[in-house]
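The instructor's notes for this session suggest beginning with a concrete chain rather than abstract definitions. Hand out the sequence below and ask the class to guess, before any prediction is shown, which regions might be ordered.
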Amino acid sequence: MKFKLRAGAELDSLTQDELDASLARALDNYRERRRLEQREPRWIRADASGQLDANGNGMIDVYRVRQGQELRVRRFLLEVDGYNAAASFQGGGIQLLRDGLLESFQGGPLPALGTCTEGAEPHMRNGDLVQVQVIAGPANAMVTATVEGPLYIGAP
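After discussion, reveal the predicted structure:
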């Protein structure tokens, strides 16, 4: 390298030892990130309950993903008290939201189950709030929302 210095200018440079130490730290950090990324995920199932309003609408906060983690939602389920697969509530639908933003929608009778294929599932990470919203369900009904999927530690 060539440097042109002027009177009163300061020059800050690294010694070979300082450069080696800095590169070693960067390489160690990179290796640690790769090690965390290659860990097997843990499968989680989170659920929360709430009551719909008189119009059959409601929002349920199901799970907050911690910093440094990533949840890939593979299934989301809404169960409604008093209804089942044999005797379902016709109409309505559920939406999967990330911090209030739409990620996926499942229409049709309630209870309802939404599934996402591997590679196409919503990725929630680093403090995201996973929510399930009910639209036009049974008035004043109690509901339970469940989300499932692999949880990765050491998310980007």
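Then share the key points. The longest strand covers residues 142-153. The chain is about 15% helix and 40% strand.
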